[in-house]
């Protein structure tokens, strides 16, 4: 079993180190992380590549994750590009929406919040072209309880739109436990998503 000590590292370094270990042929890993976002991101990354993952809290304020290969791993592009693999239309045209604030426009904050909720509610009008929604910085607040945009985000997720929520941002705002929709993600997934997208909308 290979030890990957990621204590003191922030997103996306723990995921990158695990990815590099897998590229070298590792089938069993022991990973040490010291923040919730890294623990969740590493576990999701490895499970997505066919690993069974368990973790335990250790004295000293860190977690020890153990991961063993079970199924055939998938490539980074295959994992990041999901779930559009089931749709030829999505493979041909991928529209990504990047949301970095909880309001839309500048001026009145209450109005901006209503406009953002309306914007998210209207996104399904893009049809099969709409591939992924990425929430960064203040945008992650939209995915946390309570929130006026939760119903719109849940509707997108239920209609096979991938919703990625920055784990580092959630941790910064103390919202990891309050997140109610989407996948807690990391900067590696987000950067790869931006690269894979055919079109990026930033409201």
TrEMBL record:
Gene3D superfamilies: TusA-like domain (3.30.110.40). One of its GO terms (molecular function) is transferase activity. Keywords: Transferase. Residues 4-66 form the UPF0033 domain. It holds the Pfam family DsrE. InterPro entries: DsrEFH-like, Se_metab_YedF, Sulphur_relay_DsrE/F-like, TusA-like, TusA-like_sf. It comes from the Bacteria. This is Sulfurtransferase-like selenium metabolism protein YedF.
């Amino acid at each position: 079993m290979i030890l990957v000590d990621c204590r003191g590292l922030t997103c996306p370094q723990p995921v990158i180190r695990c990815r590099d270990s897998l590229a070298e042929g590792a089938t069993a890993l022991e990973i040490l992380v010291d923040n919730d976002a890294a623990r969740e991101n590493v576990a999701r990354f490895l499970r997505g590549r066919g690993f069974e993952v368990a973790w335990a809290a250790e004295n000293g304020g860190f977690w020890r994750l153990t991961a063993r290969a079970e199924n055939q791993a998938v490539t980074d592009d295959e994992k990041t590009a999901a779930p559009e693999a089931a749709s030829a239309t999505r493979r041909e045209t991928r529209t990504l929406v990047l949301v970095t604030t909880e309001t839309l426009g500048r001026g009145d904050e209450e109005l901006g919040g209503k406009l953002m909720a309306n914007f998210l509610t209207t996104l399904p009008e893009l049809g099969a072209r709409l591939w992924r929604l990425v929430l960064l910085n203040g945008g992650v607040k939209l995915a946390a309880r309570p929130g006026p945009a939760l119903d719109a985000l849940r509707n997108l997720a239920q209609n096979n739109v991938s919703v990625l929520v920055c784990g580092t941002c959630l941790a910064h705002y103390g919202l990891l436990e309050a997140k109610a929709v989407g996948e807690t993600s990391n900067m590696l997934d987000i950067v790869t998503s931006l690269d894979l997208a055919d079109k990026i909308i930033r409201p």
